[in-house]
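Hi support team,

I submitted a single chain yesterday and got back a structure, but I'm not sure I'm reading the token output correctly. Could someone confirm the output below corresponds to the sequence I sent? I've pasted both exactly as they appear in my results page.

Thanks,
R.
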Amino acid sequence: MHSAQELVTYIESLAALPSVYYRVREELESSNGSISEAARLIEADPALTTGVLKLVNSAFYGFDRKIESVERAVLVLGLRQTHELVLAITVSNVFSGIRPQHMDMRRYWIGCMMTALTARELAHLTCNPAAGRLFVIGLLADIGHLVMYQTVPELAIEAQTSADAGNEPLFETERRIVGCDSAEVGAALMDNWKLPTSFAEIIGAQITPRLAGKHVIEAELLHIALAVSKADRYNESSEQALRHIDPRIWEKLGLKPNCFARIREAVEISLSSCTAMFFPCMI
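Hi R., thanks for writing in. Yes, this is the structure output for that exact sequence:
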């Protein structure tokens, strides 16, 4: 049996965030942070520069005018959104370097992007100001499975096979067979990456959102987003997928369950283009 922290330690050398991310974050979060200095740090990394300019000029943000410099991008986005964009690009680059033998990586990236886009859409729908952060959290929500298939593939496959047979939910088979579930592993990795504490709390509570403390609303939005992604993966109808969501969550969020199908359709429209932007080598 393995703990979440044990699995994360195994993969730490493969899944470390580059130092440039932490330098950029420090500048963006500093009370004396400088837009010019943040732009200079981003420009020192060609891949990050390319990613920022490509995304800021895409339909993902929908700005009217073309943005031709990183400094202008930081100015237009603001420090918080710049941090979220830099983190999303950094994470996608780190993800691309991890390819467990027994995972369908193309399917995995598509699922991550669907969760991310759905979480962002739900945040907009509920007027939640954390839409950008929820996009990144959605992108990271299933990273625990990536760690499991990289570190204990035989056990991960056994857990998935047992769950697919209909005996019990996947998180329960993972706890029984592996010793921890993917949400726990994902939360442990967020802590190791020293990301804001909300990331670990929300990802760790994706199965049971009420455990997310002050971030319960964001955890509930992520919970629904994961149901959308799961429905797509298993070819479930929206009616079937709704059975996995506690009706009380809709009530708390002020949403109607019948919006599930509309959200799913809206996300599917932009899914391919966004996946291609973040994971071009996988599509």
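A quick pointer for reading it: The first helix runs from residue 4 to 11. Let us know if anything else looks off.

Best,
Support desk
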